[in-house]
Write a structure and sequence with these properties.
The chain is of the alpha/beta class. The chain has two domains: about 100 residues, no CATH class; about 150 residues, Nucleotidyltransferase, domain 5. About 50% of the residues lie in helices and about 15% in strands. It has 16 helices and nine strands.
C-alpha cells in the first residue's frame, strides 16, 4: 500500500499520467475529425455544409484476413476507358459469376479478334468463338454483379491491370446507369488489388520476360490458357494468386474504389506542384480526396495534420498542404 502510494506521488508517475491523458485526448480528437460529430463554431458548421454532404473521412484500408477475395475481369468493345462492357466475370472461392452484355455500340474489330466475342444488332444475338450465348442489358449485368458481391464477406476485387482499365470502366458505367448503383457498389466493396502492380512490386524485372498475366501464369503455374475471355482470365488469375501472391500481398497493396475520383480532386495541387504525385497516390489509395482534407481542417485546428500523419504523409508534404489551405483561406 505504501509502495503504491509512493509510486503515485513520484514525478515519473505524474508525467506518465499526464502523457496518457494527452494521448487519450488526441485520440478522441482524431476520432471526431474522422467521424465529424462535433463542430467548433457556427462558421465552421457553415463551411462544412459547403462540402456537399461529405461526412466520414475514411481510415487507411487494413486487411484483417476475413475479407473475401473476388477475382474479376471485364471484356469491352474497345481499348478506351469509355468503351462499353461486353462481359463481366468474377470468382470467389467456389462461387462464379459470368454475364455477357448487350453492347450499345459496335464492337471494334480488334476487340472481337482478341475476345472472340461478336454481336449482331439485327438479331440481338451474341456469339463467343461462334457459339451463341444469352446476353443481358448493362443495367441488369451490373445489378447482378453487385448482388453477387453482396453475398461475399467484405469483398476485395482482384484483377490484372484493373487500376488502369477495368476499375475506371466499371465505375464510369455504374455512375452512368444510376448514382445509387455506384454508391451501393462503393459501400459493398472494401477495395481492389491490381495484381500487375503486385507483380511489379515483388517480382524482380530480371526474373520475368514481362508482367502480362499470360506470361506470369506460364512461368509460375506452368500453364497456358485462352487469354481475353473474362471467365478464363479470372480462373487463371486465381490460380496464379494462390500459388505466388498469397503471402506477399499487404494492406498497402489495397486501393480504394474511389482512387481515381480522389486523384482527380488533386489536379490543382499537382499542376501547381504543391505536392508530388506519389503523395496524392498514397492519399487516393486510402480514399482520401481533397474534400476530405478540407473537412478535416474545418473540424479541428490540427485535423488536417492528424489525417495526413495517419496516412503516412511525410512531414515536408504535410507542411506544403497546410500552407496551401492557409493560402486558400
Amino acid at each position: 500500500m505504501e509502495k503504491r502510494k509512493e509510486k503515485k506521488s513520484s514525478k515519473e508517475y505524474k508525467v506518465g499520467r499526464i502523457q496518457k491523458k494527452r494521448n487519450r485526448n488526441k485520440n478522441e480528437r482524431k476520432h471526431l475529425v474522422r467521424e465529424g460529430k462535433t463542430y467548433g463554431s457556427q462558421m465552421e458548421f457553415d463551411r462544412q455544409q459547403d462540402l456537399e454532404q461529405t461526412t466520414e473521412i475514411p481510415l487507411p484500408v487494413n486487411l484483417d484476413g476475413t475479407e473475401c477475395k473476388v477475382f474479376f475481369d471485364l471484356e469491352t468493345t474497345g481499348l478506351g476507358r469509355n468503351s462499353d462492357i461486353i462481359q463481366i466475370a468474377a470468382k470467389s472461392n467456389s462461387n462464379s459469376f459470368n454475364r455477357y452484355v448487350i453492347p450499345r455500340v459496335d464492337i471494334q474489330i480488334e476487340a472481337s479478334k482478341i475476345t472472340g466475342i461478336t454481336y449482331s444488332h439485327g438479331t440481338n444475338k451474341t456469339y463467343v468463338q461462334g457459339d451463341i450465348v444469352e446476353p443481358v442489358t448493362l443495367h441488369k449485368a451490373l445489378l447482378d454483379f453487385i448482388h453477387f458481391l453482396k453475398e461475399q464477406n467484405q469483398p476485395i476485387i482482384l484483377g490484372h491491370n484493373i487500376c488502369n482499365f477495368d476499375i475506371p470502366v466499371i465505375v464510369n458505367k455504374l455512375k452512368e446507369i444510376h448514382v445509387i448503383c455506384f454508391s451501393t457498389f462503393c459501400e459493398t466493396v472494401k477495395g481492389f488489388i491490381d495484381t500487375m502492380k503486385v507483380a511489379r512490386k515483388y517480382i524482380p524485372k530480371n526474373d520475368v520476360e514481362n508482367f502480362k498475366q499470360q506470361t506470369l501464369v506460364k512461368q509460375f503455374v506452368g500453364e497456358n490458357y485462352s487469354a481475353h475471355n473474362a471467365i478464363e482470365d479470372v480462373d487463371s488469375l486465381k490460380t496464379l494468386y494462390d500459388s505466388k501472391f498469397t503471402s506477399l500481398v499487404k494492406s498497402d497493396d489495397v486501393f480504394s474504389i474511389l482512387y481515381h475520383n480522389c486523384m482527380d480532386s488533386y489536379s490543382d495541387l499537382l499542376s501547381n506542384k504543391i505536392v508530388s504525385r506519389p503523395v496524392c497516390m498514397q492519399l487516393g489509395k486510402d480514399g482520401i480526396s481533397l474534400k476530405h482534407l478540407k473537412l478535416a481542417s474545418v473540424r479541428d485546428v490540427n485535423g488536417l495534420k492528424f489525417v495526413l500523419q495517419d496516412n503516412k504523409i511525410p512531414p515536408k508534404s504535410v507542411k506544403c498542404i497546410q500552407d496551401y489551405f492557409q493560402t486558400e483561406e
